[in-house]
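Summary for the funding panel

The consortium committed to producing paired sequence-structure records for every protein in the target list. Below we show the first two records in order, beginning with the earlier of the two.
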Amino acid sequence: MRSLYRRLVLSHIAPLLVILPLVGVTLIYVLEREVLLPILSQGLRDQATILAATINTNQTILRDPFEAKDFLERYAPTISSQMMLISADGRLLAIANANRDTPIGQPLTLATLNRALTGEIVTQLTYSQNSQAEVAEVLVPINGNRGVIGVVRLTYPFATVVDRFELIRSTVGLTLLIGLILGGGLGWLIAWDIQRPLKRVTQAINSLAQGTRSEPVPETGPRELTLLAHTFNQLVERLRMLEDARQHLLSNLVHELGRPLGALRSAAQALLRGAINEPDLSTEFLSGMDHEVVRLQRLLDDLTRLHDQILGSLELNDKLIDVQAWLPTVLSPWRAAAEQKDIQWRTSLLASPIFVRGDPDRLAQAVGNLLSNAIKYTPASGSIAIDLTCADAQLTLRICDTGLGVSPDESEHIFEAFYRGSANPRFAQGMGLGLNITRTIIEAHQGSVHAEPNQTQGSCFVVRLPLEQVTPAHAV
């Protein structure tokens, strides 16, 4: 019974095995005791009343035992109950189908007889399974001019009504048996319907655990099992994304690490072959090696931030930031880099102080990633514009360049980790982590970032952050 399927079937059948017999016994008792016997007693009462009225029209029947017996035997074929005539003094006058041992003429000791002799119609029911017991008894007094002159007594022995009892019991038993079979079959179908999606999910989990690529599980069945299948499908999709990310990471790492390491090895071999003795050449090689080491360091920083992002451990050192004082310090080194590349630089800041709450270093990192991309992909003689505005309790920072633009199809994908545009050379290099890290930082500050086409040429990256409403006494 360790199988869930069997337990589900048993959970449907077990209550039926307990409840249906109890219901059956109770129903049989009620039908026999409260329905059949009252109907039989009413029939006896009607028959006894007719016999009493007939005798009352011919009272000589009560004075002659032979005539009384003949009277009962005439009615015996039409009345299935046992008939008896009793005199006014309580003696047995006649009984239908009497045998030799019947005490004709002897006084009767019946508890109900005295009540009938006083003029009361007596009806008594006895629910008994004894074949000799009288389950229904009716005594109807025969009233004369001077009172009760006799009593008609009709009874139903159990042996007389046993066929009717058996019919009720067999009908109820058959009905309950059919109900048990139908209930068991319905329980089997329900258990099978529950077990089938569970079995699919279990097989899918086993395949996943064994390393086999699992297909999505059909999300059918009861609500809870549908939710289970949906959750499993989400897990499979998440694992697939992580696997794809791992493969992208490995391929990108090989590509990104191979190039600077190859350059470092070539420079080192050149120095070993004698270039170290030439000051100008060695300085150039060492400068190039330093540049490649910086590239490797930035790569490691990006991977560290990606690790924090995946683990959900991005920690923020929240402070009140005076944007007017903070933003120029962030823009200053990037402005110098743009001017070295002969890129026009334009900024438009606000005159009044504005404040946001957040981690100034993390926000500087996010803005720096956007500025780095703008400078990298904007050609000489191009331009970069930084505009700062406030509206609807939000700070909006727009960084627009005249470099390579972003197509509408790629405007959302460029923020995904490891994404590198296949046709757009703007995203064909690097690990594809910068914009993903930027979005993570901005969203951690309850803000948003998106890309849109520049009005003339290039792209605009728009950052929105919620403003701090209360002017602080101390701000960064």
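The next record, for a separate protein in the list, is shown here:
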Amino acid sequence: MRKSIFLFFLFLNLAYGYSYNEVLLKAQASIFPKIILLDKKIKNKLIEGKIVYAIIYEKGDYDTAVEVSKTVDATYNGHFNGYAYEIRLVEFSDLSSNVEASAIYVLNSDRDIKKAANIALEKGIISFSYDVNNLKEGLLFSLVLEKSTTLYLNKENLVTKKIDFFDSLLQMVKFLDKNSS
């Protein structure tokens, strides 16, 4: 009987989205927009004069995407350091290279992570991931709450000429590559 109940909740979680750590979501929502501003070429990525921050989510994670959006709005009140911003929620099924974004934040998915990473790389925009394991799929940044807060950077996708970070950021991150565990 216990196994049946466990399996029920396991499949329920898979069917209706992932479980997210709310503290981690809030930390990412407050830190990732600051990282966008550390791109020396951010002015080249403005859309209609503002930063467009796209949150990419699975259908079952819509409420989580909305909560992240609300946290960003509560923290930044319409401006990332003088730049107006707009948040766009984009379901994975609607994700294509036609989606206009200055940066993307990808929630969990068991598919399409590589597609999101390729679109970000093609556009030369910063990509963030909820899950550090998704950096292996090509996303650029993730934040983890370990003994201390750790910002991870996918070293292999840093080579794009469309993104140029201030050196101070590169001194704070922990680099990952395909050989990292």
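Regarding this second record: Confidence is low (pLDDT under 50) at residues 2-16. Residues 111 and 119 are 14 Å apart (CA to CA).
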